[in-house]
Design a protein that fits this description.
The chain has helices spanning about 10-20, 35-50, 65-70, 85-100, 115-120, 140-145, 160-185, 200-210, 225-230, 240-245, 265-270, 285-295, 335-350, 365-375; strands at about 25-30, 50-55, 75, 105-110, 130-135, 155, 195, 215-220, 235, 250-255, 275, 295-300, 305-310, 315-320, 360. The protein is an alpha/beta fold. It folds into 2 domains: about 10-155 and about 330-375, Adenosylhomocysteinase-like (Rossmann fold), CATH 3.40.50.1480; about 165-325, NAD(P)-binding Rossmann-like Domain (Rossmann fold, 3-Layer(aba) Sandwich). The protein has an 8-stranded mixed β-sheet with strand order 9-8-7-10-11-14-13-12. A hairpin with a 2-residue loop joins strand 12 and strand 13 (about 305-310). Helix 4 (about 85-100) packs across helix 5, helix 7 (about 160-185) packs across helix 8 and helix 13 packs across helix 14. The radius of gyration is 21 Å and the shape is globular.
């Protein structure tokens, strides 16, 4: 593991100021990206909520982070992404049964909503065991919103102002990572057209960063009010996907959190267009449809596959359709850690028992404390 002496101790200071007690009759079940900053978060939380199992998300993280947790005696699993949901379901079922046998409670801590879905579908398994869930991402909030009946409180930092701040920097990290790849391929973005599908917090950062690199940026979003926002920000706002393709973009980036680069758009894109995801998981690009169109696939860079289609167009898929910012350094640790500080704050809130089933963002007064600690130590 890296030397962490350079990093301000945001997380440790947050933990100390809150005076969080230990909850010995409770376990923590974790689904996370495993980076050095995540290790720091987990080791701090392990002091108050002993970790049962950590399941790492395969398209992100580092082997050093995994080993560091294992060296502390923490059980870590790293399934392939295709097996992630199945692994989470099986491990969560086991963990719930062990907690029930030992008369312990369980807290879910995750990104992406994998465990909260597994707890509810195909049937609810957490009766009298699962106290609630702590979530970092909008994807996880959307999963909870989509359940037929949410049985537990989900407390999140995905709907806070600091998360919005982080989203802008995620957009910058997406473009910086893509720029590194394209430079290694000898490809210049300046003077070319780009399309950004989705103009949320991340999409805004992506669009601005592309513009700063000399690209003409067109924005698409299903919400017409959001498109007005994009137009006022100085971007070309486009509602019609076919019109997007007519602009002959060199790069299309999906930043919606849903399927945005779909079959219809793939069918219409020009030759030599790059396909990029800026959102978590692998939802943005219809990769199965791309595979069905492909006559020959050739790796042209460690992170880029050329798909030569049956009509002889070439489309370049970046990072297999997973978020491009995970190919290199993403958002700086000291930015991510003010979100992790917020997540630490969720623990005593959840354990207070004051929340019924539902979705709850961190209250603004707690968010102000996280921001204050960040300034104090920076």
């Amino acid at each position: 593991m890296e030397d962490t002496s350079f990093h301000p101790e945001f997380l440790g200071e947050t933990y100390r100021r809150l005076g969080i007690e230990r909850y010995p009759a409770c376990r923590q079940f974790v689904v996370q990206h495993l980076f050095p900053d995540t290790v720091r978060l987990l080791l701090i939380l392990h002091q108050c909520l002993p970790i049962d199992t950590v399941i790492g998300i395969s398209y992100s993280g580092s082997s050093d982070a995994v080993q560091s947790l294992r060296d502390r005696g923490i059980r870590v699993l790293t399934p392939q992404y295709a097996e992630l949901a199945t692994t989470v379901s099986a491990e969560l079922t086991r963990c719930v049964e062990e907690c029930r046998t030992n008369r312990e409670k369980l807290v879910i801590h995750e990104v992406g909503g994998f465990a909260i879905r597994a707890a509810h579908e195909p049937q609810w398994i957490g009766e009298d065991v699962i106290l609630g869930a702590l979530e970092i991402t909008k994807q996880g909030v959307w999963v909870a919103e989509g359940l037929d009946r949410l049985r537990i409180p989900q407390l999140n930092v995905a709907q806070t102002r600091l998360k919005q701040t982080e989203g802008k920097l995620v957009g910058e990290a997406v473009v910086a990572s893509l720029d590194t790849i394209l430079r290694e391929m000898g490809y210049a973005t300046v003077g070319r057209d780009a399309v950004v599908c989705g103009y949320g917090w991340v999409g805004k950062g992506v669009a601005r960063s592309l513009q700063q690199r000399g690209m003409s940026v067109v924005v698409s979003d299903p919400d017409v009010v959001t498109l007005v926002d994009a137009a006022v920000d100085g971007f070309v706002a486009q509602r019609n996907l076919q019109r997007l393709a007519e602009r002959q973009p060199a790069i299309v980036i999906g930043a919606s959190g849903h399927r945005s680069i779909d079959a219809a758009l793939l069918d219409a894109l020009p030759d030599r267009c790059f396909l990029v995801s800026a959102a978590s998981k692998n939802h943005e690009i219809d990769v199965p449809h791309l595979d069905a169109l492909t006559r020959v696939a050739t790796r042209v860079h460690p992170h880029v596959m050329e798909h030569r289609l049956s009509d002889d167009r070439r489309l370049y898929l970046v990072n297999q359709g997973y978020p491009v910012n995970f190919t290199g350094a993403s958002v700086p640790d000291e930015i991510v850690e003010f979100l992790f500080a917020e997540l630490i704050m969720l623990v005593p809130l959840l354990m207070s028992g004051d929340f019924g089933p539902g979705i709850y963002p961190l209250p603004p007064e707690h968010e102000a404390l996280a921001a204050s600690i960040w300034f104090d130590l920076r």
